[in-house]
C-alpha cells in the first residue's frame, strides 16, 4: 500500500470522498462538524488529509487536524471530544497559534477492504504524518463501532468488555490498542445534535416519543420532548493517545 496526502495529490480528493461517510444520516447534522467537512479540510490542511492506495486504487482515507495540546490553558483533552477538538483547531487557526498535536477525525475504509488491516495502515500513516510535521502527539476521539449495538449500556461499562485474549471487545478500539494506543478518558459530550421532531423523522424515519429513543447508528438514545418539539442526541466517545 502507498500513502499520499492531498498537498501532493489533490486529484485524490474525489476518490477519497467516494469511500463514504461515518455514521447515519443524523450524524451529518452536528453544527460543529460543519466546520470540518472534508472539502474544507482538504483546502485548509491538505497535508493532514491522507489517502491509502492499493495497486493504484484508493482503499482508505485518514484525516487529522492540528491543534495546540497540551498548553497552559489546555491541560486535559476536552470533555466535548470530537466537537471540542474541532473548536480548538479552528481557534488556533484563527489566532495563528502553532499546533503541537494532531487529532485524528476520520478514518474511512472501503467496505470491501474492511477487516484486512487497512485501517491500521491508515492510522500508522497518521502517526508518521504527525512526526514528519514536527508534532508531538496523536490523539483520537474514538467512536467505538460496536457501541451502536448496545445504546443503553454506559460507555464506562462498555469499556470493561474484553475478550479472552485481553483485548477490547469493540473492534475499532481493538485496532487502536493493537497499535499501542492508550486510553486517556471518556469524552461524555463528544458530539451534540439537536433538531425538531420533524427533522429527526426526516433523519431517521422515526416519530420520536417522549423520553429515550433508540435510533439506528446511535451509540446512545435520543432524548425527545414532544411538548418542546425537540430531540437531543449527546454522544460519548473515548479519547485515546497513540505513541509517536
Automatic annotation (TrEMBL):
<dbReference type="Pfam" id="PF00583">
    <property type="entry name" value="Acetyltransf_1"/>
</dbReference>
<keyword id="KW-0808">Transferase</keyword>
<dbReference type="GO" id="GO:0016747">
    <property type="term" value="F:acyltransferase activity, transferring groups other than amino-acyl groups"/>
</dbReference>
<feature type="domain" description="N-acetyltransferase">
    <location>
        <begin position="36"/>
        <end position="145"/>
    </location>
</feature>
<dbReference type="InterPro" id="IPR000182">
    <property type="entry name" value="GNAT_dom"/>
</dbReference>
<protein>
    <submittedName>
        <fullName>Acetyltransferase (GNAT) family protein</fullName>
    </submittedName>
</protein>
<dbReference type="InterPro" id="IPR016181">
    <property type="entry name" value="Acyl_CoA_acyltransferase"/>
</dbReference>
